[in-house]
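hey can u run this one w/ DLL bound, need the structure tokens asap thx
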Amino acid sequence: MIYDIEFETLPREALEAIQLRRLRATLDRVYATVPFYRRKFEEAGVVPADIKTLKDLRRLPFTYKQDLRDNYPFGMFAVPMESVVRIHASSGTTGKATVVGYTARDIVTWSTLMARALASGGATCCDIIHNSYGYGLFTGGLGVHYGAERLGASVIPISGGNTKRQIMIMKDFGPTVLTSTPSYALHLAEVAREMGVGFGDLRFKVGIFGAEPWSEGMREEIERKLHLQALDIYGLSEVLGPGVSMECIEAKKGLHVAEDHFIAEVIDPDSGEVLPYGERGELVFTSITKEAFPVIRYRTRDISSLNPEPCICGRTSVRMNRVSGRTDDMLIIRGVNVFPSQIESVLMDMGETEPHYQLVVDRQDNLDQLTVMVEVGESVLASGEVRRFQDMEKRIAKNIKEFLGVSAKVKLVEPKTIARSEGKAQRVIDNRKF
Ligand code: DLL
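ok here u go:
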């Protein structure tokens, strides 16, 4: 079903006319209200009035995650706080998280886009949605929740974790749509099997999975183990949250971008040049309807390509191909975004270990496991007390959990055990298969 039949099936010309009108209004607004954008535009020698066509967007400077951090927490909001009704943030050490805000109208926009997304996965008001995305500062839980309510479906706000209870609720309440990260979906299947519950006996027909990279191979595995159709949903807090793009159940081939709200570009990450349709590069988004937190040419670091071909579902928007990786070293561990540099800060702030560390990521029972290997100095080693090492491992793990919100196993190792490199240090060994 197409939720927003008028806007989701606009002829290209009409869509572009809307995009240009909304883009220009957004540019006028950020120039007037966000000192960061005014300064950046001035440095680039452009004023909003210079943007006369959609192609002129290329004249505007990019916005980076670092810009958000530099303006922490609310420096890039385009409305006064009294108009902000919701705040979300991505994980990060204190002072480094990226914080985003929404006006009441932004929440309506977001809910509508999420209702569209759920509907493009075949959900209707008759469905019961089991929402295992985390509720909290992360946009997944509340994003899906508001969309489900807007669609008129019944939503179970189960959030993540407490897996056995989730399986019990699935048996008792009979949900028909599952929303979670793809890795948690596989974990649910595993736990259900251990409990003697077959997904084939549950009522699920579709699962809407995202927030982390996954592959076609993983789609097949999920569909086989969970007896449902697995669809991909994409988004990021800086641009909106979930609902920036979503696959349709008819084609299951590429994610329809909500182009009446976001302009998508794919660029060469090194030169910054805009690439033609079909070529792979870094996704860049400009929001054209958001009030509290508009973003202009935001560099997502996600790698994908755009496909303008018409889709059998009838939607006319451009589709982005599955995100195949990132241009930076950000890891997504159980849905939490983690930069190796954040772990490094925790280690360095504690000052008890050497600056040689490595992060090993594995997937056990379909759950991500992060192990932080870090060298201790000769003097610590000389003390030779096992209890002291164990105590230190526990304290480091506790600090990582506290500052980054991610559970890690910490393993202290002897001096010079971690391979030294001549070029870039290999900080991460990611054994997960996407
Ligand atoms: O992960 C929003 C979201 C919630 C999307 C629920 C889908 C479902 P952030 O925590 O800000 O927001 O993380 C955004 O996650 O830049 C990508 O690197 C990655 N990501 C999100 N969706 C996908 C996906 C949410 N479908 C970052 N495939 C993004 C691959 C994804 N990576």
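The longest strand covers residues 367-375. anyway lmk if its weird
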